[in-house]
Design goal:
single chain, about 375 residues, TIM Barrel, 14 helices, 14 strands, about 40% helix, about 15% strand
Length: about 375
């Protein structure tokens, strides 16, 4: 595809997506909370570590495959859960899921997504499901039953969103959930005809107004509406006891996402979590929250037998290697993959995956490490 010829790294997708997407949609994807300090901090944390390569090592047969929850993945990264992807590309959730599945990687379907989970897992077997969980255990139970019946084996519960964040960039751009059609968005859409025709018009003509399909057991509200209103019940009364109850109901693997403290990691393990994702929600919730990479070693120490994963700021193969050297078993990346979908759909995501995979392979050779499982703290300097 011609539009991918000048895309040489994950960062290159950002300016390309900025040109294609309306300002409000791009800001929703790329922006963070308040002053964006947490977003910037996630990237800056990687600069605190330098790599210490070994030389004259036989690296002619390299492997970046990893085993997670008993399943072998081709590379040590997956695609993070992201909501309202339909605003970026027609059926973007499927574009992301199919590309990940074809590459032998996990895709995590977000609860606030617009393609029914049953269709996603049919087209991308092995996908994971992420939820913020609706209010009330009866509703949670019905959602868990739906996910299990659909065939999901890994449930990711995001726990760092008790209330919505202060995303001022969205307010300045006139953006909110649901998306309210107004003059500002209409004019912005007219200035981005490829998005207007290829995404908005195609979605409305082929599928109608997208809805939040997977937040609860039943279909949710429309993503696009005449008036804005509350989409999700508050989660500020959700506690560790609820995680314990979910563990008693869910027979698959349980992952808790949004951990930034050793004591919370220990509690997640005690409540029966099989895995933990060290995450500050990509800098989209509490501005100034510590970067996941900075707390990764202490969380790994506290988590013991639980599988520790990480997201936040992953843009390069060296970022992946640094996170794994600090103890993560796996990492996830979100924004670059969604921006890749915004640029070229499934083909764009496949290209993004290939770029990151190629970087990891090259970086392993340059580091003098033939197998990614051999990465350790001795390969880093602070």
């Amino acid at each position: 595809m011609a539009r991918l010829r000048r895309i040489f790294s994950l960062q290159d997708f950002e300016p390309a997506a900025r040109r294609r997407l309306p300002k409000s949609v791009f800001g929703f994807v790329a922006g963070g909370a308040e002053d964006g300090r947490a977003v910037q901090g996630n990237r800056a944390a990687f600069d605190d570590y330098a790599l210490r390569p070994r030389v004259l090592v036989d690296v002619s047969a390299r492997s970046q495959a990893v085993t997670l929850f008993g399943k072998r993945y081709a590379s040590p990264f997956g695609i993070s859960p992201m909501g309202a992807c339909a605003l970026c590309w027609f059926e973007a959730d499927l574009a992301l899921a199919r590309a990940a599945s074809a590459a032998g990687l996990p895709f995590v379907l977000s609860g606030p997504s617009s393609i029914p989970m049953e269709r996603v897992i049919k087209e991308a077997p092995g996908a994971w499901y992420q939820s913020y969980l609706p209010a009330g255990r009866e509703r949670i139970g019905r959602l868990l039953e739906r996910a299990a019946t659909a065939g999901y084996e890994v449930l990711v519960v995001t726990v760092d969103v008790p209330v919505g964040a202060n995303r001022e960039n969205n307010l300045r751009n006139g953006f909110g959930m649901p998306v309210r059609l107004n003059l500002q968005l209409a004019l912005d859409g007219l200035l981005h005809p490829r998005w207007l025709v290829g995404t908005l018009a195609t979605t409305l003509l082929r599928s109608g107004i997208p809805h939040f399909e997977n937040y609860a057991a039943e279909r949710g509200a429309a993503i696009i509406a005449a008036e804005r209103g509350a989409q999700f019940a508050p989660r500020d009364a959700f506690t560790w006891s609820d995680i314990g109850w979910i563990r008693s109901q869910w027979k698959g693997k349980l992952v808790v996402k949004g951990i930034l403290r050793a004591d919370d990691a220990r509690r997640a393990r005690e409540e029966g979590a099989d895995g933990i994702v060290v995450s500050n929600h990509g800098g989209r919730q509490l501005d100034g929250a510590i970067a996941p990479l900075r707390v990764l070693p202490e969380v790994v120490e506290a988590a013991k037998e639980a599988v520790v994963m990480m997201d936040g700021g992953i843009r390069r193969g060296t970022d992946v290697l640094k996170a794994l050297a600090l103890g993560a078993k796996f990492v996830f990346t979100g924004r670059p993959m969604l921006l890749a979908a915004a640029v070229a759909g499934e083909e764009g995501v496949r290209h993004a995956i290939a770029l990151l995979r190629q970087e990891i392979d090259r970086d392993l050779a340059l580091l003098g490490c033939a197998d990614i499982s051999a990465l350790g703290r001795d390969m880093l300097a602070e």
